Amino acid sequence: MKILITGGAGFIGSNFIRHIISAYPDYSIINLDKLTYAGNLENIKDMENHPDYRFIKGDICDRHFLGSLDFNAIINFAAESHVDRSILDSFPFLQTNVIGVQNLLEAAKIRGCRLLQVSTDEVYGSTEKGLSTEESPISPNSPYAASKASADLLARAYHKTFGMDVLITRCSNNYGPYQFPEKLIPLVISHALAGRPIPVYGDGKNVRDWIYVLDHCRAIDAVFHRGNAGEVYNAGGKNEVQNIDIVKRLLTLIAEKTGRDKESLMDLITFVNDRPGHDRRYAIDPSKIEGELGWTPETGFEEGLANTVDWYLSHQTWWERIISGEYMDYYKMQYKERFGE
Ligand code: NAD
Ligand code: DAU
Predict the structure, then answer these.
(1) CATH code at position 29
(2) Range of 291's domain?
(3) Catalytic residue among 121, 165, 209, 215
(4) pLDDT band at 325 (very low <50, low <70, confident <90, very high)
(5) Is the pLDDT of residue 340 over 90?
(6) 234-256 pLDDT, tens per residue?
(7) Which residues have C-beta within 8 Å of that of residue 31, sequence separation ≥ 6?
(8) Which of 38, 168, 234, 235 could form a disulfide with 219 if both were Cys (CB 3.0 to 4.6 A apart)?
(9) Which atom of ligand 2 is nearest the CA belonging to 119?
(10) Is the distance from the beta carbon of residue 7 to the nearest atom of ligand 1 less than 6 Å?
């Protein structure tokens, strides 16, 4: 099996490559990544010299380039992934998340090979009551979510029209090692350690269903190997938490692990203007993947959060390098209005 993994220099893709190479020693992996602001070869440095791993810098929007590669399956992680950035500028989201996926579908069609599209629970929109199942209507609310939903619809259409072997996973909020510091959990950790204000959007009571990244990787593994063509599989942690609770739990952990004063850390919490179109709650039902494929999350939230804080404490140079570069320009642009400046 020669798998083309796209976006493997990002957060989930890099964790997945490490997982698949150790779980399937007879596979060979091509990691194709454009190395956008979110792609970082340091995330996957330990695989650099592995005989079954090869990195290629490239863009999934470049269909001729895709045609030159040799593979017999695709798992697509490549995306513009941050909701707030899609509000500032949606163009790169439509390019990569829609046109890029169309190119990958075409490349899979030519080879007659399996393609797994890594999607998100955000395509269901805000789930005010109950849980979203794979049958729930698609109702995306941010440009990011709309671009991911568009890709899901394209993947579905290629399965129906061309009988292609396409699978879709829709996962909830991931956390863990190598997550880019723009996302809530690493942002809170890095701001707390630097003594900077911690921006909490709106009233802080929005709910997300958090899952440890390695559990998501195991879900993709299960769907890729045992899923049925044309099907969608939700993967979630059954772990709904309000944002403000996460922030407080993280600050408590940081105080315990570093000896910093907990009250001073809590004083950093700053309620700021809300994200436009901010979905109130995501909550998905993972019964299908659990029942049909025998997958279930293995890492509890307390354990996963503690691992994550430990990882960011012991990889300070990794995230300090990121937030000292052009990231700060983005941060100022994004948060100026949020802080009411
Ligand atoms: P990320 O932003 O950390 O990584 C994205 C990677 O894609 C980067 O390495 C980037 O360089 C690469 N990339 C971007 N545009 C590209 C292009 N045109 N060609 C090739 N490579 C390109 O994202 P992530 O959090 O690891 O998310 C991975 C996937 O999982 C995305 O599709 C996202 O929608 C989905 N997802 C994420 C979460 C989450 O909580 N982070 C949850 C569910 C689903
Ligand atoms: O649900 C899956 C999705 O989870 C993925 O598809 C996306 O790629 C991923 O980015 C994530 O989207 P969210 O918007 O939920 O993640 P984010 O970390 O940006 O925000 C989590 C929650 O925290 C959300 O309710 C907004 C809030 N938030 C976020 C930031 C960055 C804050 O209150 N303050 C912040 O500074």
Answers:
(1) 3.40.50.720
(2) 2-174+212-236+283-298+328-339
(3) 121
(4) confident
(5) no
(6) 999 999 999 999 999 999 999 99
(7) 5, 6, 8, 9, 13, 17, 44, 53, 54, 55, 56
(8) 235
(9) 6
(10) yes
